[in-house]
Design a protein that fits this description.
Elements: E1 5-6, E2 17-31, E3 37-45, E4 48-54, H1 58-62, E5 70-80, E6 83-93, H2 96-101, H3 117-129, H4 134-146, H5 148-153, H6 167-185, H7 191-200, H8 205-208, E7 209-210, E8 216-217, H9 219-223, H10 226-239, H11 246-257, H12 274-298, E9 333-336
The protein binds fe (ii) ion (2 copies).
Residues 171, 201-202, 283 line the site of one fe (ii) ion.
Length: 351
């Protein structure tokens, strides 16, 4: 590849030319203001995601590869607003033979939770096993046994938080740990109802999202959403447990239906008792903290403060000596996005 180096997404630096192998997560043919077609692509490898633009022969190239394919890319890293993106110079689908030749295993392309999935899983099971209420314990055991595969692999959400494999489990793990520590302070809380509510609040994601490497909303996810789907699943599972008390089921239904907190955030109910209020606020803590960390890490503007173009729409403090996140190989930079800019186009000999 001549003078170019192979790069993972988290290693990309503004201005450099590089080559690499990535998974295509999204691909859309769009038209610029001057009517020129281009491909707007989202690429992923085990270190993160980045937006890429292809201007050359965009219509023709649209048929050459699809979402879910592994591609070889030669390109340049450009800055746009406060993010970086790739300008693709060459792109080619990598077939099975070439994958073996280049030793490109699946783990090269999947972004996973930084936490250990099996350890989180066994800690959650420990918590379920310690629940004394037989109905709550049966209910959670049923759900966690039946959906183990999905609970271990799905992302926390498509874009907003923990948007990587195992992200849902990480989110459940974080929220249940926070819940456990809150119980030490407020002993008037019904701990078992609260913990069961936390463990069940996002089960609707099992039916809202699907996919193996590239996740997407299911039809029922788009039509109904995880809040109501979760309530449906809870009713179905509770029905299978003989004598499940109606009031207990209603309280759990309410926790699921109110966990987004406010009507303006598409919550069908607002929390009506302390355990429901706490589930909503814990969910908010874990989600917002992730978004803040991610906004700080993926910001590429100079100095100690981020720009305002982030979820919070305000400047965030990066520290006295902020390292440019993209210079740091260990950094988890995810969801970098930007818009198209143009630079000079050089041919490469990669393909
Ligand atoms: Fe949720
Ligand atoms: Fe949640």
């Amino acid at each position: 590849m001549g003078e170019r180096d192979r790069r993972y997404i988290a290693e990309l630096n503004e201005g450099e030319k590089f080559y690499g192998f990535y998974l295509v997560v999204e691909k859309v043919l769009k038209y610029a203001k001057n009517d020129n077609p281009y491909l707007d692509i989202l690429l992923q490898d085990r270190t993160g995601r980045i937006t890429a633009k292809l201007w050359e022969k965009a219509q023709e190239m649209d048929a050459e590869f699809n979402v879910g394919d592994i591609v070889g890319v030669a390109g340049a890293v450009e800055k746009f607003r406060d993010s970086i993106q790739i300008k693709i110079e060459k792109i080619r689908r990598i077939d099975e033979e070439k994958r073996i030749e280049e030793n490109l295993t699946d783990s090269e392309f999947i972004v996973t939770t930084p936490k250990n999935i099996d350890e989180m899983w066994s800690e959650i099971w420990e918590i379920i096993k310690n629940i004394k209420n037989p109905y709550l314990s049966k209910l959670l055991s049923r759900i966690y046994r039946k959906y183990e595969k999905q609970l271990k692999s799905l992302p926390g959400s498509m874009r907003l938080h923990h948007a990587y494999q195992g992200g849902l489990l990480e989110h459940i793990f974080n929220t249940v740990k926070i819940a456990k520590s809150i119980c030490k302070v407020y002993d008037e809380i019904n701990e078992e109802l609260f913990i069961a509510g936390v463990l069940a609040h996002d089960i609707g994601k099992i039916r809202e999202l699907s996919g193996r490497y590239v996740f997407d909303y299911t039809d029922e996810g788009n039509f109904i959403g995880h809040v109501v789907l979760g309530r449906d699943m809870l009713i179905e599972e509770a029905k299978e447990i003989e004598g499940f008390p109606e009031l207990l089921r209603l309280k759990l239904e309410h926790i699921i239906l109110s966990h987004h907190g406010k009507y303006e955030w598409q919550s069908p109910k607002e929390p009506a008792f302390p355990e429901a209020q706490l589930v909503y606020q814990i969910d908010e803590i874990d989600t917002r903290l992730y978004q803040m960390k991610n906004s700080i890490e993926s910001d590429v503007s100079e100095g100690k403060w981020t720009s305002k173009s982030n979820y919070f729409k305000r400047v965030l403090y990066k520290g006295e000596n902020p390292e440019k996140p993209l210079d740091n190989e260990d950094n988890e930079t995810r969801g970098k996005e930007g818009k198209e800019t143009k630079t000079d186009d050089k041919q490469t000999s990669l393909f």
